[in-house]
Design a protein that fits this description.
One of its GO terms (biological process) is iron-sulfur cluster assembly. With about 140 residues, the chain is an alpha+beta fold. It contains five helices and three strands. It has one domain: Sufe protein. Chain: A (Alpha-Beta Complex), CATH 3.90.1010.10. Strands 1-2-3 form a three-stranded antiparallel beta sheet, covered by helices on one side. The chain is globular, with a radius of gyration of 14 Å.
């Protein structure tokens, strides 16, 4: 399987995966993110206890890239500390902005989300890929 087929398959699988597309009862953090240029609209909910993301989910609608990216992010960051999550978010954003190029490092830190590295070559889709990540960052950095 070539890389573009693998990329497409992972995007489609995460777009269809609904286990993290839900509301969280008793969430501690919630933020809505919206991309007016394409209509992506996502709400991130997190349950954070003792500085650890115990549960992370999203609702909303959007293109397959925004939904798949949100799915990958929730898989990756659930169970991490808020500090770890913020570091990983910065690494993801650095990858998309073409500031981090070491694919082995990216695969190690971002796991499946590293497959979105190619989005940096599609300027119109960058906002789709980063929407959930920016939204979670805003949610956890807000003072309660």
């Amino acid at each position: 399987m070539d890389l573009s087929n693998l990329y497409t398959q992972v995007i489609l699988e995460h777009n269809k995966d609904t286990r993290n597309r839900r509301e969280i009862e008793g969430y501690t953090h919630k933020e809505r993110g919206h991309n007016p240029s394409c209509g992506d609209d996502i709400t991130i909910e997190a349950k954070i206890e003792d500085g650890i993301i115990k549960d992370l989910a999203y609702t909303g609608h959007g293109c397959s890239i925004s939904q798949a990216s949100a799915s990958m992010m929730t898989d990756l960051l659930t169970g991490k500390t808020v500090e770890e999550a913020l570091e990983i978010i910065e690494i993801f954003l650095g990858m998309i902005k073409r500031e981090i190029h070491d694919i082995d490092y990216l695969e190690e830190v971002l796991d499946e989300a590293s497959i979105l590295q190619g989005i940096s070559n599609l300027p119109a889709r960058v906002k789709c890929a980063v929407l959930a990540w920016h939204t979670l960052k805003e949610a956890v950095q807000k003072e309660d």
